[in-house]
């Protein structure tokens, strides 16, 4: 399976590539904005593709069979950049996938994106962008999975999560590595197809937790 990772040079994106590339049935392609990032993608086992979410992405999705959107400006950037990447960039990639007949799309979202009006300041704008991208994907007709993690940490992977349509995310966290594993495993996990769910660190092995979604 040819799979494209948007946001490939980000911390989570690199982890996704590293995990998926261990599977001989996966040909992993990492979307990068700068040529100097190509070597990192290769070292992780992926194939670099030069493309920018703020520009045309049609060529980047050629011959792909699945897409993972793990790009993000983050809540600390200005609102213009957040809109350009988290909202419009994601929407552009969804539309390109539909245009090219790519049916499978996995979106890295965030808890709170279902109710962005409850957030404040820059976080509210960030969650509004995520909300709009999620809704566009759900309405696209593609086979989607939308994963909404709680606060991310750089801790070592635990390999165990709690996943539900809605979780209590107060003071909860999850290692980025576990989020990357969830996204990677969701690609072919039929129990996650056309589902939106939230995740945090928990007691169930990731594979089992996703089976029970």
UniProtKB/TrEMBL annotation:
Q: From the record, give the transmembrane residue ranges.
A: none
Which residue ranges does the record assign to the NAD(P)-binding domain? 7-189
Task: Identify the InterPro entries for this entry.
Answer: NAD(P)-bd_dom, NAD(P)-bd_dom_sf
Output the CDD domains linked to this UniProt entry: SDR_a5
- A Pfam family this protein belongs to? NAD_binding_10
What this protein is called in its record is: NAD-dependent dehydratase
Q: What is the species listed in this Swiss-Prot or TrEMBL entry?
A: Peribacillus simplex
């Amino acid at each position: 399976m040819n799979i494209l990772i948007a946001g490939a040079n980000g911390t989570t994106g690199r982890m996704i590539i590293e995990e998926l590339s261990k599977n001989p049935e996966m040909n992993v392609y990492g979307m990068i904005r700068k040529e100097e990032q190509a070597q990192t993608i290769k070292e992780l086992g992926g194939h670099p593709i030069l493309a920018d979410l703020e520009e045309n992405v049609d060529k980047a999705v050629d011959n792909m069979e699945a897409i993972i959107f793990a790009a993000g400006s983050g809540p600390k950037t200005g609102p213009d950049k957040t809109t350009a990447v988290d909202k419009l960039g994601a929407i552009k990639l969804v539309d390109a996938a539909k245009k090219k007949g790519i049916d499978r799309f996995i979106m890295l979202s965030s808890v709170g994106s279902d109710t962005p009006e409850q957030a404040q300041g820059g976080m509210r704008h960030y969650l509004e962008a995520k909300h709009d991208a999620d809704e566009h994907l759900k309405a696209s007709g593609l086979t989607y999975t939308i994963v909404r993690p709680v606060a991310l940490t750089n801790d070592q992977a635990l390999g165990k999560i709690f996943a539900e349509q809605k979780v209590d995310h107060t003071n909860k966290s999850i290692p980025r590595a576990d989020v990357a594993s969830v996204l990677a495993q969701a690609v072919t996990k039929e129990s996650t197809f056309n589902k939106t769910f939230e995740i945090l660190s928990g007691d169930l092995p990731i594979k089992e937790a996703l089976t029970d979604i």
